Amino acid sequence: MFKLGLQPDTVTFNALINGLSIGGKVSQAVRLFDDMVRESYHPDLITYSTIVNGLCKIGGTTRALRLLTTTEERGCPADIVTYNTIIDSLCKDKLVTEALNLLFEMTDKGIQPNVFTYNSLLHAMCITGQWEEVITLWNEMLANNCKPDVVSYNILVDAACKEGKISEAHDIVERMIQDGVQPNTVTYNVLMDGYCLQGEMDEARKVLNLMMITRGCVPDVYSYNIMVNGFCKYKRVDEAMEFFREMSQNGPSPDTVTYSALINGVSQLGRLLIAQQLFKEMSAHGLIPDMITYSTLLHGFCKHGYICKALALFKSMQNSGLKPNIVHYRLTNEAYELFRKMEVTGCLPNSCSYNVMIQGFLQNNDVLTAAKILDEMDKACGPLSLSIVIIVITAVHTLETRVYQI
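Request: output the structure for the sequence above.
Response:
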């Protein structure tokens, strides 16, 4: 634009900077802002707010703080939105002291914090265990005539549940109702999860019933997943299946988390036929098993000695295109232990079994173990196929390339 001799104004810059920020191109937005300042254009409050928001999204809170000072120097003082953006970013980084200092700064300048300001600070204090500070800030919030909203109460309920203070969490819910703030689905989900963490499944069921019948809140998939996972965790699988059937019939539809929890629950009790049926059912419904689903079922096969089925499932996982991670690494080692037991149990390894194990270790960049199995395969199954040779050569070349780049 400058090269073409065109003279944009602040509104033009704001539109461009906002568009870049919304499009995820924050670095380009910052460079454009720097060009704007260098060319002696005058950013306004919208410009600064947009850049501050973009910087905070990409972890540039330090520069955002510097810009806050610049706004004052340029006669364009920040507003509550700009302060809230930086305070929230500091809180997400667990820099509570710095966030509080900014709170004091804004109040000194006559800018009154709102419920969003307090919620950011309350959440950060709760996750860092600063309970006395939470009470102090809550009282300050009330003293400043800033009424807590449902998010404020949910933060406290969640914190109490995670600390195992389920009775206090229940009291907070009762208090919010008395204060005229209606609990939402999130509130009840958090409370149910708190009871489940303490093994009080019957109390969690009461909360779900209260939520649906008395309060008129509609349970979502997370509500049911909390109950299904809780019952499975405490080996009350039949009750978990009841919730699963209710979901299937009346909604919301079960998701991958639901199936993974159920597969884990029935597998632990040795009901592997049901686990396999659930695994097939989720695929039939268009749900893609994730690493946790595979891990759960594979562990069940391993635990109960279904070696061939475990290796077949492991191969299916490899073919699914899931990106290997630490769970995949553990599964590979677990499958390898089964692989070593095959001869003892009379399920002799064939070329397919060898291929599965070789590819598993190659995906984990464990070339030495893969080479060891490859040598065994050559002796046990005769000449290696061209396909496995190509796989090994490609994997070794890829690894060498990574090492060279390092």
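The chain is about 75% helix and 0% strand.
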